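Lab notebook: predicted structure, single chain.

Context: the supervisor wants predicted structures on file for every construct in the current expression panel, including those that have not yet been purified. This is the next one on the list. No modifications to the sequence; it matches the entry in the shared construct table.
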Amino acid sequence: MGGGILLFSLVFDAVTGKTSLGGGDVKLLFAVGLFLGAALSLLNLLVACVLGLVFAAFRLRGAPSAPCGKAVKGAAGEGAGASLEGASPESTPPPVDKAIPFGPAIAAATMLTLLGGPLVLAWYVGLF
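Prediction complete. Output recorded below exactly as produced.
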């Protein structure tokens, strides 16, 4: 599992020119994959992705929702080139360019997978 994620991360980095996953995320997924095995490791990755999306949605929901590129007036009333000091929270753009940590989602997903993963896999396999 860790090797596949590393390969995906390296290809994504090469194509987009941006960093996708940190080395710690890949190492954590590798270690968890060794402990859980193949089937539970795939379930763990799925749960980690869902938890990461939920975490990112809550993080972006709490951010101010002003449109990016909008001229922000500073404390002294300057225009577009003004500093953001003294600007109201409603007028600052959301921090969408910041990295969202994936390690906490992996750790939480590992706990959930350890607690309920075998039951979920047994239910899923029973569908076929």
